[in-house]
Design goal:
D-Maltodextrin-Binding Protein, domain 2; alpha/beta; 21% strand; 14 strands; elongated; three-stranded parallel beta sheet; 278 residues; six-stranded mixed beta sheet
């Protein structure tokens, strides 16, 4: 009986050890690691976010420059290369290319409108100069042009060298006056300038004989060619156009510049230039 009891006790001990062995032989299941949080959406610079929150991009554009910014008399809308670039920017910031508000500007009014905060940016054949860089931020140029001369076909002018004593019409606050004036001085030619608020006014002055030539960037002058006028071969002072923003809006300027550089690299802007036959 004692022997049987011994065997029973030994068997129970063995079974107990086997149970412990089974429990240690399998690792305890570890709780599942928490899923990595989804990457946060990339935040926009505050100045760009403000435009997105407003739901509209306010842009200063020309309304009298064929190919760049010209009001369509049938629809009332302003159309052109610079409006199309503004639409691309609006699509990037707001997600809607039509979320733009175009404010017509002239060479004289575009700076003050930007300074006063009436527009977020200017796309209005705004030539980049070292002097202007002291007052505004400019993007990488999206278009390069040169100053030219539009004259009457029966004027007998072949170049600026033939215009001694003549009057040249230019836009207020434009760079054309300085460019033509410097070239005239180099040629030993004396010219005077009449300044006008808009390009149609200069064209009207040319048509009526109040000025002998209309001077601005050549791509703009092409929009005013007709049966009575011709564009001379003269080309002065290459003009680079950039997107202008307020000087203290550095984050917005950097954001826009990156977009412009990307569209230049992938051919998007060239496609728009071709579209508008510039």
């Amino acid at each position: 009986m004692k022997k049987s009891l011994k065997w029973l006790m030994l068997l129970a001990a063995l079974l107990l050890l086997a149970g412990f062995a089974a429990g240690c032989g399998k690792k305890a299941e570890q709780p599942a690691a928490p899923a990595a949080p989804a990457a946060a959406e990339e935040s926009l610079p505050a100045q760009v976010q403000a435009i997105k929150d407003a739901g509209v991009l306010r842009v200063g554009t020309k309304e009298d420059v064929p190919g760049f910014g010209l009001r369509n008399t049938a629809t009332g809308e302003i159309e052109g290369l610079e409006v199309d670039i503004a639409k691309l920017i609006a699509k990037e910031i707001i997600g809607d290319e039509n979320a733009i508000e175009c404010t017509p500007v002239t060479a004289k009014t575009r700076g003050p409108l930007l300074d006063n905060g009436d527009v977020d940016m200017i796309l209005a054949t705004f030539t980049i100069t070292e002097e202007r860089k002291l007052s505004y931020n400019f993007s990488t140029p999206y278009y390069t042009d040169a100053v030219g001369l539009l004259v009457k076909t029966d004027s007998g002018f072949g170049s600026l060298a033939d215009m001694d004593g003549k009057i040249i019409g230019v836009a207020q606050s434009a760079t054309s006056k300085d460019a033509v004036g410097a070239e005239a001085e180099a040629l030993g030619v004396s010219v005077t300038f009449d300044e006008y608020a808009t390009y149609p006014e200069i064209k009207a002055a040319l048509d009526s004989g109040r000025v002998d030539a209309f001077s601005v960037d050549k791509s703009i002058l092409r929009g005013y060619l007709d049966d009575t006028t011709m564009l001379l071969d003269d080309a002065f002072n290459p003009q680079d156009y950039g997107v202008a923003t307020k000087l203290d809006n550095t984050d917005l300027a950097a954001y826009v510049d990156e977009l412009i550089q990307g569209w230049l690299a992938d051919g998007t802007i060239q496609e728009l230039i071709d579209k508008w036959e510039l």
